[in-house]
Amino acid sequence: MKTEIYKIDGMTCASCSSAVERATRKLVGVESSDVNLSTEKLTITYNETALEKESIVETVKKAGYSATIEVPDKTITMPIEGMTCASCSQSIERKLSKNEGVTSITVNLATETAQIIYNPDKVRLSELKQQITKLGYTPKEIVVKRNVDEDKLRKEKEIKIMKFKLVVAAIFTIPLVYIAMVPMIKFIDLPYPEILSMMMNPLNNALTQIALVL
From the DSSP assignment, how many helices (H) and strands (E) are in the chain? Predict the structure, then answer.
């Protein structure tokens, strides 16, 4: 059994809603059909193997009204890479909230995710992803249920990469500081290769420092 909600236009009184209910309840495969006049909505439960949506719409039309199926809002959690501060998450929220069909959006900087509630009939998920990309961030594949261990492993991997970059930077920074600063330290006689002397071989000194910086 499948339950769907239809927006019914043209009803003005209780007899109108009753007419829609009577007509739809006669359809083969319909288990229940109820109309809320105040919200102008038809809630119908039916066997989708025995009845098609088009038949429901056509039946309501023959009763003198129009029916449009309502697509319920969808809630997703989208991983986003590239955010570094609160202004990043705020810019994504501002941009996406302007879309017709986006009911709610909350970006969590700590978990690098965005929870989006939207109507698939009014805005496509691909459009939202494109807007995030244009802002300079990377929307990742949506995971229905994210594993906490996977998040932990991803974070640990990022930390390892940062540590590696720090070590590499230190390897080149220490000799750079030594070459640049030792000639200025007069009270300590530290070893210094003559080939890198600022006074005797300024070109070698400059090229070496440039190479270490690059």
Answer: 6, 8
Are 66 and 80 in the same domain?
A: no
The CATH number for 97's domain is: 3.30.70.100
Q: Assign 3-class secondary structure to 173-192.
A: HHHHHHHHHHHHCCCCCCCC
Place of tokens 């209780």: 14
- The first and second tokens of residue 44, run together, are 């119908």
Q: What is the pLDDT of residues 91-146, one digit of tens each?
A: 999 999 999 889 899 999 999 999 999 988 889 999 999 999 999 999 998 755 44
Number of domains in the chain: 3
3-state class (DSSP) for residue 208: helix
Structural domain boundaries, residue 206:
149-213
Task: For residue 118, give the 3-state DSSP assignment.
Answer: strand
